[in-house]
Specification:
Blueprint lengths: L1 H26 L5 E13 L18 E13 L4 E12 L12 E15 L4 E6 L5 E6 L9 E5 L3 E6 L5 E6 L3 E8 L7 E17 L9
Antiparallel strand pairs: 1-2, 1-11, 2-3, 3-4, 4-5, 4-6, 5-8, 6-7, 7-10, 8-9, 9-11, 10-11
Length: 218
């Protein structure tokens, strides 16, 4: 009878171990803490907007591109949420399609937003910006150090990437999705300029600090 009990207990323990391992693997609890980030990217600006295939709309309007490098920190929480702050350094190169009166320039800006994230069983991570949480300001360049101050926002951003097996490195890229860039003047609730834009870029994140682990989590 004792031998039978032992034999029955072994499969039960094996099932429990498999279940625990599976839950740990699928939940990816290792995604937490502070990750330092660096990356580069490009944006396409079209005041007339884009069609369903992401071509610039007709009739032709001033269309121009910009390039940037970014650095910052991403804070990943245990509950699938987080916060990030970027500093971005960009240039608008000379182009025949620059808006009338506009000049090629260099500028830097800072922005932050809250996000949610999900991870699949094979370590693919998707990060979605929470709408309404984006806050941006100009640090240098034509829109900086003005009175009243100019700020900006975008309506959405999606990042997709992979996680290393030790959870210490993430790679993220932005999808080619249509965003709306809005610029504001402090004290005025209405945007002073609005421009549809498509941005894509890459990010590499390296874990630099652990996060507090809430009681009750594995």
């Amino acid at each position: 009878m004792k031998k039978l009990a032992v034999f029955l207990m072994i499969p039960a323990l094996m099932l429990l171990a498999a279940s625990t391992a599976s839950a740990y693997y699928y939940d990816w609890w290792g995604i937490h803490g502070t990750y330092a980030m660096t990356g580069t990217g490009n944006c396409l600006w079209s005041p007339s907007g884009f069609d369903a295939q992401l071509n610039t709309n007709a009739p032709p309007a001033p269309v121009f591109g910009s390039h940037f490098a970014a650095r910052g920190n991403w804070e990943f929480e245990w509950n699938g949420k987080g916060h990030t702050t970027f500093t971005q350094f960009g240039i608008v190169p000379p182009a025949e399609t620059l808006p009338p009166g506009a000049k090629a320039n260099a500028a830097s800006l800072e922005f932050s937003f809250d996000f949610t994230y999900t991870v699949t069983h094979d370590g693919v991570i998707t990060v979605e910006m929470l709408p309404g949480t984006f806050q941006g300001k100009f640090l240098t360049g034509p829109n900086a150090n003005l009175t009243p101050e100019k700020t900006f926002t975008i309506d959405k951003a999606t990042f997709v990437g992979s996680i290393s097996s030790d959870h210490r490195t993430l790679t993220l890229t932005t999808e080619d999705e249509l965003q709306t860039f809005r610029q504001y003047v402090t004290g005025n609730p209405n945007p002073v300029s609005t421009c549809p834009t498509i941005c894509n870029g890459s990010r590499v994140l390296i874990k630099v600090q652990e996060a507090y682990r809430p009681t009750g989590l594995r």
